[in-house]
Amino acid sequence: MMVEVEYLPLYSTYGLGLTTWSPLASGVLTGKYSKGNIPQDSRFALDNYKNLASRSLADDILRKVNGLRPIAEELGVPLSQLAIAWCAANPNVSTVITGATKESQILENLKALEVLPLLTPDVLEKIEAVVQSKPKRQESYR
User: Fold this and answer.
1) Domain for residue 66, yes or no?
2) Do residues 62 and 36 lie in contact, with contact meaning Cβ atoms separated by under 8 Å?
3) With the C-alpha atoms ordered 114, 95, 71, 37, is the resulting torsion angle positive or negative?
């Protein structure tokens, strides 16, 4: 999850937090698109999502998804739960909007709460090494 560096003063000075959406990147972080295939029953198979599918399944994104898979396996959790827990673990995030198309997905997504305690500083470093999402710019506020 990329957090714009310009917003940092809002978190520390005013106590505001982010509401994140699509922590599974429209299903990409479930792993079902990891080989570049689009399952027939998936969102990206729908006409309205074909443009999104072509952008979201870029090689760089799939490389990152495949890099996260061993971390999830090491923790013994699904990739989807790791992704949601990672978003929720960010101290600047107040709310994670998961979205789902099936009741079973809602129940599965809620299990991400059980993954939060597994996200030790070492695990978070491994995730960051894969996703490289930390803002690069130095703080320079007036």
Assistant:
1) yes
2) yes
3) positive
Domain, as residue range, for 48: 5-130
132 alpha-carbon distance from chain centroid: 12
Alpha-carbon gap, residue 16 to 89, rounded angstroms? 15
Q: What is the pLDDT of residues 65-114, one digit of tens each?
A: 889 999 999 999 999 999 999 999 998 888 998 888 889 989 999 999 99
Q: Which two tokens stand for residue 119?
A: 């996200």
Locus of tokens 């305690």: 117
At 76, which CATH number? 3.20.20.100
pTM of structure: 0.74
Q: Look at residues 131, 142, 141, 120 and name the one whose alpha carbon lies nearest to residue 3.
A: 131
